[in-house]
Amino acid sequence: MPEVTVLMPVYNGMPFLPEAVDSILNQTLRDFTFLIINDGSTDGSKEYLDRLDDPRLQVVHQPNQGIGAALNAGLAMCKTEFIARMDSDDVCFPSRLKAQLDFLHRNKDIGLVGTKFAYLGISGRSGFPPPAPEDHSTMYAYLIQGRQALCHPSIMCRTSILQSIGGYRIHSSGEDYDMFLRMGEATKLANLDEVLYLYRLNPNSLSVKKFMEIREKYSYACHCARLRSEGRPEVTLEEFAAEQRARPFRQRAAEAMDIYALAQYRKALAEILGPHPLIGYARLVLAAISSPRWTIQRISREIRKYRK
Fold first, then answer.
1. What pLDDT does residue 306 have?
2. d(CA 120, CA 12)
3. Where would a tag sit more exposed on the chain, N or C end, judged by fewer CB atoms within 10 A?
4. pTM for this model (two decimals)
5. CA atoms of 269 and 279, how far apart (whole Å)
6. Which CA distances in Å does 104 have to 4, 156, 190, 220?
7. Which residues partner with 120 through β-bridges?
8. Per-residue DSSP letters for 10-43?
9. Which region holds residue 128: left if phi is over 0, alpha if psi is between -120 and 50, else beta?
10. Which is it for the CA torsion 266, 297, 188, 237, positive or negative?
11. What residue ranges do the domains of the chain occupy?
12. If you write DSSP's letter for every residue of 67-116 in order, what string do you get?
C-alpha cells in the first residue's frame, strides 16, 4: 500500500492543470495515491481529468463548495500514513515527494514539513524565492504574527495528526493559516532548505478585494490561536470582524494600506514573471510608496538575511 496520498483540489484549473498533474505523476517517488477533488469546475477541467489514465489516480467530482470543504472531503478519504498537498496551477520538482517522505521518516517528532518555493509566472518564467524559516519555533512565531512561514500546497504531513485536529475549519480562502497554527500546537513544523515547488502567480486573480478577505481570515486565525494559548474561548469570525471595525480609523487605514501594498507587490511579481515586466517594476514602486512602513520592514529583513 502507498505511504502517501497527494491531495489536489481543482476549481477551473485550466490551462495550467495538465502541467500540475504531470509534475506529480513524474515524481521520482513512484508509489503514491493521487487524489483529485474537482470542486465543481466549469472550464473543461472535469473533461480533462476524466481522460486521464493512471492507476495511481483517483478523481472525485463534487458541486462547488470551496477549497477548505474540498480538502476536508479528500482528507476523509485518505487512508495513507502521510498526505501531501498540491495546487492545480503549480509545479513540483521531481524529487519533492521523496525528499519530504525521507525527512518525515528520519524526524519522527515533526508532523508537517513544507519546502522552500519560487514564484512562477503565467509565461512559465520562475524566480524570486522568498526566505522561509526552517525550525519549528521560528515558524510558529512567524505564523502567530501573520507572516508567511509555509507554502500550503508544498506541505506533507502525518495524516493522523491533521485528522485529529479536525482538518480545515475555514471552507473558503484563508483555510491554511488556521490549520497551520493548530498543527503547530499539536506537533512540530519544519521546512526543507531547498526549493522544490513553483507557486503560480496569475495577475488576473490577484485582486485587492481577495487579499483583504484572505488577510481577514489570517488575522482571525492568529487571534483565535492567541485566545487558545491563554485558555480563553475562541470567537466567531463575525464577532472578530465586528471588533476589527470598532478599532480607531487610523489603525484600520494603516492596515488597509499595508494589505494594498502587499497585493500590489504580488501582482508586480506576477507581471514581471509574465508578459508585462516593465509594468511589474512600475507596480513595485507603487507598492513601496503605498506602505513605506511595510517596505522598510521588508528591506530590513533582506539586509539582516544578507549579513547572515
1. 43
2. 18
3. C
4. 0.90
5. 10
6. 11, 9, 10, 30
7. 126, 200
8. ESS-TTTHHHHHHHHHT-S----EEEEEEES--S
9. left
10. negative
11. 4-204, 205-307
12. HHHHHHHHHHH--SSEEEE--TT-EE-TTHHHHHHHHHHH-TTEEEEEEE
Place of cell 524529487: 95
Among 234, 229, 258, residue whose Cα is nearest residue 243: 234
**CA triplet 141, 305, 140: central angle to 5 degrees?**
10
Q: Which residue has the cell 474540498?
A: 70
Cα separation, 289 vs 83, in Å, equals 42
289, burial (CB in 10 Å: exposed 0-12, middle 13-18, buried 19+): exposed
Q: Please report, as a single letter, which amino acid is at residue 288.
A: A
The pLDDT averaged over each successive group of 10 residues in the chain (308 residues) is 96 96 98 97 96 96 93 95 97 98 98 97 90 94 93 97 93 86 97 96 76 87 95 94 90 83 84 86 80 58 48
* Tens digit of each residue's pLDDT (9 = 90 or more) over 228-286: 999 999 999 999 999 989 989 888 888 888 888 888 888 888 889 988 888 888 888 87
Q: Which contiguous run of DSSP H or E holds residue 199?
A: strand 188-200
SS3 state of residue 193:
strand
CATH entry 3.90.550.10 includes domain 4-204 = yes
